[in-house]
Amino acid sequence: MPNFLDARVIVFIFLLSTLAGCADPTSDALRFGLASAPVTLDPRFSTDATSTRINRLLYQQLVDFDPASYPIPALATWKKLTPTHYRFTLGKEGRIFHNSKNSAGDRLTTADVKATYDFVLDAKNASPHRATLELIQRIEVVDVDIIDFHLNKQDALFPGKLVVGIVPATLSAAQHSLNQQPVGSGAFSFVDWPSEGHLHLMRVTDKQKIEFLHVADPTVRAIKLMRGEIDMLQNDLPPELISYLRSQKNMQVLRGRGSNFSYLGFNMNDAVTGRLEVRRAIAHALDREAIIKYVLGNAARPAAAMFPPDHWAGITDSSGYSYDQQQARALLKKAGFSAENPAHITYKTSSDPFRIRLATIIQSQLEQVGIKVDLRSYDWGTFYGDIKSGRFQMFSLSWVGIKNPDIFHYAFHTTSIPPEGANRGRFSSPLVDRFIEAAQVEPKLPVQAIKYREIQHLLLEKLPYVPLWYEDHIFIARDNVAGYTVAADGNYDGLIKVRRSKLKLPDAH
Length: 509
Hints:
Strand order of the largest sheet: 8-9-10-1-11-19-12
Largest sheet: 7 strands, mixed
């Protein structure tokens, strides 16, 4: 492995010295390199990480979260009038839409809040967020600042579900393409999206322009950073490139502990991956500690469950499945597989080079215990489409920015099989369903936390997912960039305060 890493850096240095192109020294925009382009700029439909992070900059939401993932006010404060009746009162900040109907922009009111959530709740609009919000029975506007949500059942965590960005009521109908022409009231306004991989935003407070540039290949992305063609990037670089960039005097590297949950998912209707013994064999076959040390550069923590231990509902009494090849082989034998009759699994991943590298290592570790793995990589759109449609045996993905334990209903309840939710592996367990339902109606948060920990232990036993790790977030920028802070969920909120620290031209060719 060291020789491979050294070779990659040598190639990187060679390309850096030979590739044409350099930065535009007259540009006043700060350029942010992306591994994946956003799919949609309509918050009512966004589910991929890049779209969600950018939409968070464009739109305001009613509720946000503290470091332990408890719901806290954003646009609005709230009171629980009855177990099924919540009253939200809009504050003063974040209430001017970025449109041109008048010089100041239209003011965000409760009519916009109602229109946004009515749209999501309307089945004909096919919003992926509808399943999470179906407990809303009706929404009642009291006045321009006060709005009531009436529920069909109690849910102590209901405020934490109201995280969809608010769009103008006048544009909430499908005829305006918020996907391509977003209008929000967030820290940034939309400028232009001239191509799939080139998005322009402008910070409202000081008119600072931000350009998001999609550069899929991590080596090319690092080269563009070195040459000043982009100013900063976050994540999706192999450790050897991070180490090389850290050694350069004109680069800075920030690292923050992450909460995004990486996992292997399975098709529970498949004859092979639907077998619990096979999934447990896979869990025991993975040397996660070695992958974290040698491939992720120690920039991750092993995961045993969806929520990290510092989440209010996180578990702290389990490290997951141990690395045990002998146990893995025994489980495969119990499932009827052997050297003469090996288990065959197709493993899908994205075409991101680093994700392919991780998948190749997982493939190798599984083959060491007798599982034949056919690894297939696809561009993000094709890959994600296959996962949402259930066209897979096994895949690797991450849940990004998950704060609310209602994710367990969305991802694992029998009623959440797509298009009703994100139970993409078609997992069905009456026992898990009952535990989820009991946790959702528990009125006391401390007791609810206990119930959600029980669910995570049960899922670790049933294994619809094999937990992998929580990856740290790595932000790398040129040394004339300042003010960025790294968030635990990897959001881009650091762009709200990022700035050029001094005037400095990019390095010469």
